[in-house]
Amino acid sequence: MDRIDENILRELTADGRISNLELAGRVGLSPSACSRRVQELERSGVIAGYRARLDRVALGNGFLAYMAVGLNSHTKASQEAFEEAMADAPQVRECHNITGTVEYLLRVEVADIEAFKQFHTNVLGDLPQLGSITTYVVLASPKDERG
């Protein structure tokens, strides 16, 4: 990785549909050299894939919350059961196993507070592994660089 690779990654992160010709111009390479660099970044796994960036409000998921979840049992079986339940919950857009006072950090996207209450009660509330929940409702996202 050098500065040119970093510039390529920055440009592709901002716009994954940019043409190779335009990308090459922005990073100061010939189109063929730029294409080779992008292919090498893909081959090496640095670029793991491309995806569409979705507008959650336009999709009807205007309510966003992060939830810190602690389990009441710290066994492998409890963690696996919790992770399976989160994988099956469409409201959970991200589930991270973290260090600290709780085991998981969830990114939850739903239509509104009523839909969040339903998720809180009927999905999380039904899990026997659940020990604690702390919810952080997102008011605004002045910086969000997720792809």
- What is the annotated CATH architecture of the largest domain? 2-Layer Sandwich
What is the top-level CATH class of the largest domain?
Alpha Beta
Spatial order of the strands forming the largest sheet: 2-3-1-4
Query: Helix-strand pattern, N to C?
Result: HHHEHEEHE
CATH topology of the largest domain: Alpha-Beta Plaits
- Number of DSSP-assigned strands: 4
Q: Proportion of β residues?
A: 15-25%
Question: Taking Cα atoms only, what radius of gyration do you get, to the nearest Å?
Answer: 20 Å
Tell me the CATH superfamily of the largest domain: Lrp/AsnC effector binding domain/regulation of amino acid metabolism (RAM) domain
Euclidean distance between termini CA atoms: 20 Å
User: Given the helix and strand composition, which structural class is it?
Assistant: alpha+beta
- General form: elongated
Helicity range of the residues?
25-40%
Taking the sheet with the most strands, its summary is:
4 strands, antiparallel
Mean pLDDT: 96
Number of continuous helical runs: 5
User: Which stretches of 5+ consecutive residues score pLDDT under 50?
Assistant: none
Domain count: 2
